[in-house]
Amino acid sequence: MRGTAGGYSPHIDGLRAVAVIAVVLFHAFPVLLPGGFVGVDVFFVISGFLISSILCREFALTTSAGLRVIAQFYSRRIRRIFPALLVVLSTCFALGYCLLLPSSFARLSLQIAASSGFFLNYVLSGNVGYFGGEVAANPLVHLWSLSVEEQFYLIWPLLIWASARSRVRILPVAVFFGALSYFWNLHRNTASAESAYYLLQTRAWELAVGAVLADLKPRLDGALEAIGFGPRRLMEWGLSFFAVIGLLLIGAGFRFIKGDPFYPDEWALLPTIGTGLVILAGKKAWVNGRLLSLPALVGVGLISYPLYLWHWPLLSFLHIAFPEYDTVLPRASLILVALGLAWIVYHSIEIPIRRQPRGWSRPIMLATA
Length: 369
Known about the structure:
Number of strands: 0
Largest sheet: none
Distance between the termini: 8 Å
């Protein structure tokens, strides 16, 4: 994780690896990890934390150039998101043209357009439940979460800028909008479960949890630096305990949350609060520094975005084209293929683009936002 005040924090990439592995296992072997889909909730909290941390710091340096900061942010997001996404969407278009019937190909084409414009979640909310059997034949259903994130980032930088200009901490703003979204989610869940699963207004609270952490984490770090050695060690032990509890809560979400059409409900607090505790504990916490910072986990975390993009289309097209081979061994083989493709995309597309910043994206490289 780059871009936060504390420098690179490998445990954030390790936490990303935990999230993406859970999602991949759920999609490939749902019986093995029935709640693995809540890895997306973990991603939302991480993303809200990273983006808010960077924007708060930039606006703290200069509120007079707010529009320029926002333009730089969107430039970086485009360079971060679009290259790998376009490769995957182009591949899906080619495979769909060869393998799908005209009606199914027309639906796929619509979803490719919606994914490119980041409104796929609204397309899906009208007719595709996430836990229904028809999802297996929908190669792009997993991109709903990317649409939620990008819609959030059309609004959130403007709110952070307005808060900075008004000299208001982002904490009460994030708490207010997070609470509004959370209770809206609970209300909409009883009226329309499918739309509640996919839509920004019922998911924004998870990103807002990350924004709350972006306000609290620097203050906690500053407090640790300001106190004496003995009290600091006690606080660090306490934070290590928080990290353990956080991982246990995330693990409980993976194990006990089921594919319920009414999700996200109160159970969504398990992975979101758990992720918040892990992030708040920081890289000095034992479990963060020793477990989540393992090179293998960090490596998977670094390629988590292209891995997330690739894994589900491969599994879905297997189900569509060769249903008789849609078994454990072919699925495991395709996960290995997805890992290889993710590694290739990361090193041949993402890294070269990040190392050649141009124009508005020159000041800050948002390596993992």
